Amino acid sequence: MTISFEGQVAIVTGAGNGLGRSHALALAQRGAKVVVNDLGGTRDGSGASSEAAEEVVRLIQENGGEAFAHGANVAKFDEVSEMVDQAMSRWGRVDILINNAGILRDKTFAKMDLSDFQLVMDVHVMGTVNCTKAVWEIMRQQNYGRIVVTTSSSGMYGNFGQSNYGAAKMAVLGLMNTLVLEGAKNDIRVNALAPTAGTRMTEDLLPPEMFGLLTTESVTAGALTLCHKDAPSRMILCAGAGGYASTRLFETDGIFLPEDQQTPEKVLAHWDDICDTQHQTALESGAKQTEKFLTKAMSFVQSNS
Ligand code: NAI
Predict the structure, then answer these.
(1) Domain spanning 9-246 has what CATH number?
(2) What CA–CA distance (Å, rounded) separates 226 from 188?
(3) pLDDT tens digits, one per residue of 240-256
(4) Pocket mutation for ligand 1, best pick of 21, 196, 199, 202 (most atoms within 8 Å of C-beta)
(5) Residue 115 Cα to ligand 1 middle (Å)
(6) Which intervals hold domain Ketoreductase (predicted)?
(7) What is the ipTM score, two decimals?
(8) pTM over 0.95
(9) Residue 236: beta bridge partners?
(10) What distance in Å separates the CA atoms of residue 94 and residue 105, rounded to the nearest whole number?
(11) Domain limits, CATH 3.40.50.720, in the chain
């Protein structure tokens, strides 16, 4: 099966550099018209320049594709809205949104100013929310949409010095989980990409010999599987150096304790059973967890009445 984006319109945020650039080029190469968004600041989010995004547009156009650059700061809803309006007036639809823009402000939590925490949350979380909000109604009206959020192993598993970034990267998964449910009836599918790539974001964190293996193209191959016509929904795809894996959140079956045993000592006494992964499942929604607990409690009540 060949994956084609012919006739589709895609917005890729933070597409002037690194992964976003690679996603934008690949989407265009496979037929999509692309909005190349980039604020053009430095890695820590300061400054702005249109140069990098314009260069990506030039490359796309050289290859016969269609694209325009837009310097919207994803953390500002009015700028994002203006960008989406431009895409709509040029091309009349938005099929794909890849929320990729990101910055780093690493410090241990003890040394981190709250302003550095806030800015990282603004770009990654509110940036993703703003862009998604700006296309959501369009996708609902079209009965079609593919949205990718960009998470990170730092959020899913933690990383020293990245409490702000980790919190933000986990937050976008929370957003995805609910959008998956709310978007389903209009064929809006939402997935997450957890990349590892050699970019300016990671250049001083990775040894040079590894940098060459961690190509952006290897990650983009995964990203495209999350936003094509037959894409899944709620997938967390991890991709790096040609490796592809999936992360899922599972919950153990757990135990039930009747009222007279609901003490911390009894909970602790059942720790191994609570943590027993043998019958773990990935729940479809928060309500399914309540249902699971109530089913156990009700059956106890019934068997004792
Ligand atoms: P990068 O620094 O090369 O590219 C990020 C781009 O986002 C830059 O061009 C920057 O100008 C743009 N940007 C930043 N703030 C923006 C804003 N407010 N509005 C619009 N554009 C903005 O970084 P890289 O590595 O390509 O990262 C892309 C995404 O992948 C980020 O969300 C990052 O957190 C995520 N990621 C990257 C990993 C890696 O190994 N490179 C690991 C895990 C996640």
Answers:
(1) 3.40.50.720
(2) 12
(3) 999 999 999 999 999 99
(4) 199
(5) 19
(6) 8-199
(7) 0.99
(8) yes
(9) 192
(10) 32
(11) 9-246
